[in-house]
Design brief:
By secondary structure, this protein is an all-alpha fold. It has one domain. The chain contains 5 helices and no strands. It holds the Pfam family EOS1.
Length: about 140
Amino acid sequence: MEVQCCLSAYFSFLFIDSMMLRWLIYYTPWATLVRLVSICTINVYITSWILTLAGTTMNPRMLLPAWIFIACVLITAYYITQRNIKVVRSIYNPIAIFIAVACFVSMSVLLIELHSCMGGVSLARSVYKIQHGPLEEGHEDF
């Protein structure tokens, strides 16, 4: 799991660095600083939201798929923002592509394994219990 956290941090750095390079071309340093603080705040909020939505507080086994998903979202955001920028990058782009594909494959395999190990528990039921707590007695479970 530590590897996925580190990959998420690296992909976050790539994404924010690419945005900063673009912003420095068009905006003053103070405006760029405000944008950096804003994007970092949004990044922290979305990461926290994904970890909470995945149910990592109730089930620590869900930490790894959550971090893999976060890494995939960050590398996708990085490559979407790189389409229109003319900044030349070093050799790390092929490495980042390889790591992104490895993240996606490992996330898919883990999700299939978690789904098969849950023994018929639906994702909707898990999300409902995370958001609303356990169902009251006498109510039908979905």
